[in-house]
Amino acid sequence: MIKACLFDLDGVIVDTAKYHFIAWKQLAREMGFDFTEQDNERLKGVSRMASLDILLEIGGVTKTEQEKEELAHRKNEHYVSFITQMKPDEILPGAREFLLACKDAGLATALGSASKNAMTILNRLELNDLFDAIIDGTHTSKAKPDPEVFLKGAEALAADPENCVVFEDAEAGVEAALAAGMYCVGIGSSEVLNKAHLIIEGLHQMTLDQLENLQ
């Protein structure tokens, strides 16, 4: 029986990818070269430091490790400056409605995100009250596909993993959910997320009845 729903943030509740792109683009411009949307495809699913290495490669720029740390920090400052301007209408279709449906049905809800800026985003979207627990990058030390973030979410909700369902848009997130012993609903491509128990385009397609059918 499903008792708790755990949600990834980016790509599930909101799309912050565009803000990462313009932050990287601004950093590249400051170093004297352009960074295109095509270039940005190479950064998907890549850590901040690895993304910076790709950016520097594109620009033909060499930096010391200390300079790289400073550049990564500056990129994050750009990103934070953008997300602090976000508005509630940037929530992805159906996300608020499904979270409310879960609450009304007595299901516990948690956010499980690697982002260290999750609280800032939730505050801007006015969604904090819809989560019983928030596990973000400030609470975890291991990245997905390690299940740490979801196991901590289940613990915070006092729910057994087998009674939890995770909503994820990334392959590593699906693997993390399964490694935690949880059900998983993939949001996005069936080719990429084929290990999930159910695949949908977005939370606007999700119903409480479908949760029961996962079992």
TrEMBL record:
Quote the cofactor binding remark. Binds 2 magnesium ions per subunit.
Enzyme Commission designation: 5.4.2.6
- What residues sit in the active site? 8, 10
Q: Name one Pfam family in it.
A: Hydrolase
Which residues make up the binding site for Mg(2+)? Answer: 8, 10, 168-169
Domain of life per record: Bacteria
Q: What class of enzyme is it?
A: isomerase
- For substrate, which residues are the binding ones? 8-10, 24, 43-48, 51, 75, 113-117, 144
Keywords (alphabetical) are:
Carbohydrate metabolism, Isomerase, Magnesium, Metal-binding, Phosphoprotein
The UniProt record lists the keyword rRNA-binding: no
Q: Site annotation (Important for catalytic activity and assists the phosphoryl transfer reaction to Asp8 by balancing charge and orienting the reacting groups): which residues?
A: 113, 144
An example of a Gene Ontology BP annotation on this entry?
A: carbohydrate metabolic process
Q: Which cofactor does this sequence's record say it needs?
A: Mg(2+)
Which GO MF term does the entry hold, naming one?
beta-phosphoglucomutase activity
Please list the reactions this protein catalyses. Answer: beta-D-glucose 1-phosphate = beta-D-glucose 6-phosphate
Family designation: Belongs to the HAD-like hydrolase superfamily. CbbY/CbbZ/Gph/YieH family.
Q: What is this protein called?
A: Beta-phosphoglucomutase
Source organism of this protein record: Geofilum rubicundum JCM 15548
